[in-house]
Structure formats: structure tokens, C-alpha cells
Amino acid sequence: MPVKTYQLTLNWAENITKNVRHLAFTYDDPEIFAYAPGQFITIHFEFDGKSFKRSYSIATIPGRSDLIEIAAGFVEGGPGTGLLFNLQPGESIKVMGPFGRLILRDEQPKRYILMSTSTGVTPYRSMLPELAERIRRDGIQVVVLEGVQRREDLLYGDDFTAFAKEHPNFE
């Protein structure tokens, strides 16, 4: 399948922790932006006269939004930070993708243990609907472990907590 280039326009953004910004984009391409939960996009941009690429996992929960959502961590002086933490609604970026093989495969184990730190939890958020189906259908167990320095740095804690309340095989 050929890799596509898309123009994404920022719809809204908010800081979800002191150092992480959640951004939600619309896309103008008439073709549907098809991705598998767990995949990522690569942003192409210029900063201080140099070309850069930065990859971000898709955070969108399928069925909950038709936006392309990502989470970006703050890096002092980082070119991606300079772009994404200053991007305003209505402004556009160029991305390629989706890419990646961190997806839920057809053959499945009896239990998933999904581990991450900080924004590494983002692809697991996008997997929630498929995990719900597998828990319901096959009774699998799912454990998400997210390492953070402080409780306030926990990303998408409300999403995972609400999901755990609805799915006893999820913790």
C-alpha cells in the first residue's frame, strides 16, 4: 500500500499535563484517512531553516471522533515542540502515514501486557474499542502499565479508568 501525504488542520489543542499537549486535527483529503489503532503519523516541517520529521502515535479512539489526535511531549528547544506547542487552530501541517506495526494482530494471546512511559501510552488509547471486543468475545485479559514520575503526569488516566470500570478483564 503506497504511503500517502496529508494536510492536517488543527481543530483544537489542550495541555493534558504540564509537559504534554493533546492535538486534534481535521483532514481535507477526500480519501478516508485509514489507520489501524497503534499506528503513527510522521510530521514534516521546517525549523530554523532545516527540514525535520517527527513521528507521533495516533491517539484517536475509533468511533469516538473523526479527528486525527496525537499527544506531543515538551522538549526544551525541540523543533517539534516549537511547532506543535505554538500551532493555532486553523493552521495546517503536512504528514505522511500511517505507519507502524504496533497493532493488535489476528492471532491473539490470552493476555496483553501493554507497557509505556509518558506519550508511549498513546497507541494503547486508540486500541480500546478493539480490546473491548476481544475482552467481550474471547475473555482476554489486558493490563496497561504506564510509568510516570508524578501522578499528575499520567496520560489519559480517565479514559483507562472508565474503560476498566466497564471491562473487568482490564486493569
Report on the architecture of this protein.
With 171 residues, the chain is α+β, with helices and mostly antiparallel strands. It has two domains: 4-99, Elongation Factor Tu (Ef-tu), domain 3; 111-166, no CATH class. Helix content is 19%, strand content 39%. The protein has a six-stranded antiparallel sheet. It is globular and about 50 Å long. The mean pLDDT is 92.
Element layout with pairings:
Elements: E1 4-17, E2 20-27, E3 40-47, E4 50-57, E5 68-73, H1 79-84, E6 92-99, E7 111-117, H2 122-126, H3 128-138, E8 141-147, H4 157-166
Parallel strand pairs: 7-8
Antiparallel strand pairs: 1-2, 1-6, 2-5, 3-4, 3-6
List keywords for this structure.
single chain; 171 residues; alpha+beta; Elongation Factor Tu (Ef-tu), domain 3; 2 domains; 6-stranded antiparallel β-sheet; two-stranded parallel sheet; 4 helices; 8 strands; 19% helix
Strand % is 35-45%
CATH level 3 topology of the largest domain: Elongation Factor Tu (Ef-tu), domain 3
Biggest sheet statistics? 6 strands, antiparallel
**Element order, helices and strands?**
EEEEEHEEHHEH
What proportion of the residues is helical, as a percent range?
10-25%
The Cα radius of gyration reads 16 Å
CATH architecture of the largest domain: Beta Barrel
Number of helices: 4
Distance between the termini: 35 Å
CATH class of the largest domain: Mainly Beta
Provide the domain count.
2
Uncertain stretches: none
From the helix content, strand content and strand pairing, which structural class follows?
alpha+beta
